[in-house]
Amino acid sequence: MVNSDEVFEIIAQIQDAMPAEVRQAKNIVADRKQILNEANSEAENIIRAAEERKKIMLNQNELVREAQAKAKEIVDDAKAKSAEIRKAANVYADGILKRAEESLSTQLTDIKKTRSTLANSQKK
User: Which intervals of the chain form a coiled coil (predicted)?
Assistant: First the structure.
């Protein structure tokens, strides 16, 4: 026989835990956005610095070709780093969200089992 006090205590614990998981998921999404914004900002700063450097080098007649190649390399490197940071942020956020999803799924399964147990105990 199921003790109703224990069942209600389990339900209360599950209800207390679920909002924390939801808040954690929201924080993860916010963190992901912040990481992406920082990555984009850093990439823009790197690109801007590269372009400024490119302009300075272009003004030097004997280094024009070298400056163009170097500037392109810096811009390409900045874009590659930006893409890498963005990918890493997405992988990180996806992992956190996956764990949150699994936790919520487990909690939902527990709730369904508890409800089933309650329903079966009422039939007896």
Answer: 33-84
